[in-house]
Design a protein that fits this description.
The structure is a single chain. With 189 residues, the protein is α+β, with helices and mostly antiparallel strands. It has one domain: Aminopeptidase (3-Layer(aba) Sandwich), CATH 3.40.630. The protein contains 6 helices and 8 strands; from the N terminus they run βαααβββαβαββαβ. Strands 1-2-3-4-5-8-7-6 form an 8-stranded mixed sheet, sandwiched between helices. A hairpin with a 4-residue loop joins strand 2 and strand 3. Helix 4 packs across helix 6. The two termini are 29 Å apart. Bound molecules: coenzyme A. The site of coenzyme A has 25 residues, from helix 2, strand 4, helix 4, strand 5 and helix 5.
C-alpha cells in the first residue's frame, strides 16, 4: 500500500492556496484535467479553483502540499441542495501512485463521517479506470451501479472507509465515528 511521502501533508484548502492551485493545474496533463473537469474550459476551471480555495458551508476542499507550499493534489466534498454529497479528486500526474489520493480520500471520509453524511457522489468518466481502481482500493465495499447518461455509481460505507483511511493516513485527522456512506458516480465516455 502506498503511504504519503514524508514531505507531503494533507490539510484544508484556504484562499492563500489559489496561486499554488493554479500552478498545480498547469502541471497536470490534459488527460488528467479532463478526468477531473470533464472538458470544461479555462474559465470554469478557474472558477472551480477559486471554489476549492474558498470553503463555504456547502463545500470544502483539502490540498496535498509539499513543504515548499506547492499543491500536488486536491479533493473536494460538496453538499448539493438535493441532499447529495459529492466528492472529487485530482492528483498531479508526476505525483500519482504515491499515496496522495489515498490521503485525500481519508480527509473526505473522515469529514463525511463527522458530518453524518450517508452518501458521497464522485462523478468520473466510466472509462476512467484509474479512478475506479483508486476508489475500489481506498474504499473497500464500494458497490458499482450504472445509471443513465453513461454513468456508474460506486457506493461506499464511509464509516468503515474513514476508519481504514485514518489508519492508512493518520495525518488526515481523527475519526469521528459518524454513520455514513460514500458513493462515487462514474460517467461513461
Ligand atoms: C484517481 C486519482 C485521484 C488517484 O490518485 P493517486 O494519488 O494516484 O492515488 P494513490 O497513489 O493514493 O493510490 C491509492 C490506490 O489506488 C489504486 N490506484 C490508483 N491509481 C491507480 C491506477 N492508475 N491503476 C490502478 N490502481 C490505481 C491503487 O490500489 C493505489 O494503491 P497502490 O499505489 O499502493 O497500489 C488520480 O489518478 C487522478 O487525479 N486522476 C485524474 C483525476 C480523476 O480521475 N478524478 C476522479 C477521481 S474520483
Amino acid at each position: 500500500m502506498s503511504s504519503l511521502p514524508p514531505d507531503v501533508a494533507v490539510r484544508r484548502a484556504r484562499p492563500v492556496d489559489l496561486a499554488a492551485l493554479a500552478a498545480f493545474v498547469e502541471r497536470c496533463s490534459t488527460d488528467t484535467l479532463h478526468r477531473r473537469f470533464h472538458g470544461a474550459g479555462d474559465r470554469p476551471v478557474r472558477r472551480e479553483l477559486a471554489r476549492i480555495a474558498s470553503p463555504t458551508a456547502a463545500h470544502r476542499s483539502w490540498v496535498a502540499v509539499t513543504t515548499d507550499g506547492q499543491v500536488h493534489g486536491t479533493a473536494t466534498l460538496a453538499w448539493s441542495r438535493s441532499g447529495t454529497t459529492e466528492a472529487a479528486f485530482l492528483v498531479e500526474d508526476a505525483w500519482q501512485r504515491r499515496g496522495l489520493g489515498r490521503a485525500l480520500f481519508a480527509a473526505i471520509a473522515v469529514e463525511a463521517a463527522r458530518a453524518d453524511v450517508d452518501v458521497v457522489v464522485a462523478t468520473v468518466q466510466a472509462d476512467n479506470d484509474r479512478a475506479v481502481r483508486f476508489l475500489r482500493a481506498v474504499a473497500p465495499g464500494v458497490r458499482p451501479r450504472y445509471v443513465g447518461g453513461a454513468e456508474l455509481d460506486l457506493s461506499i460505507p464511509v464509516a468503515a472507509a474513514s476508519i481504514a483511511a485514518s489508519i492508512a493516513a493518520p495525518r488526515s485527522g481523527p475519526v469521528s465515528g459518524g454513520r455514513a456512506l460514500v458513493s462515487a458516480s462514474v460517467e461513461a465516455a
